[in-house]
Design a protein that fits this description.
Helix content is 66%, strand content 5%. The protein is mainly α and 236 residues long. The strands form 2 sheets. Strands 1-2 form a two-stranded parallel ribbon. A two-stranded parallel ribbon has the order 3-4. The longest helix is centred in the C-terminal third of the chain and has 43 residues, at 192-234. The protein is globular, with a radius of gyration of 22 Å.
Length: 236
Amino acid sequence: MTVALQDLGYQNVYHMRTAYASERDVEQWIKALEAKYEAKGAPFTREQWDQLLGQYKAVTDIPCAFFAEELIEAYPEAKVILTTRSPDSWYGSMMQTAWAVYQDRLRWIAAKFDGPTSRRRRLSDLFFQHFFRNDFPRLGKTVFIEHNDNVRRLVPPERFLEHQARDGWDPLCKFLGKEVPRNTPYPKTNDVKTFRARFEAMNRDVFNQVMKAVTTKAIPVLLVASIICWKAWGKT
């Protein structure tokens, strides 16, 4: 949906990658999730959502989806598109993408050494523990179904569109008042293969961050150890 909206002229679209790429945004989402699920601080208001998302023309994906009710209430004039697919299809994709990333050992180790990676891990911990009830493999499909049903109840029909990728451009463009793009097929870019390729690239970045963090911490330790050894040797 992000690419489709961009093709229709909504160039500034907030997405999961936007959130995780910004240390500031990661901290804001952690605050929002802790307030919602752990009673730490006050729930976000329209003012705080504006500070986080106000520069964007549209928002998609997680972590925004975890705050569907709050965002719908904060922006009552906004149109809402519920992108759907079969629960089995969605669950299979999630197990090979977001859940696989969350279970990746390299990222778990990286979170022990690298500050920004640690905070991203905290963000992922929060939504898997709370939104998915700390058992995504068993409860993921149930949460998905309940979330979709809740969004359907929250939005007035005149501001609501339920859309699947197979529906293509026509219903989406009609809902948004846009012309159907000529010679542009409806995008289908968020498949498992594309995600896994992006994941491998991200892992290379994470590895580099870990090596930099380990090196930064290891050199002072080695220097101190060398000095201690040198002094001890000098006394013999």
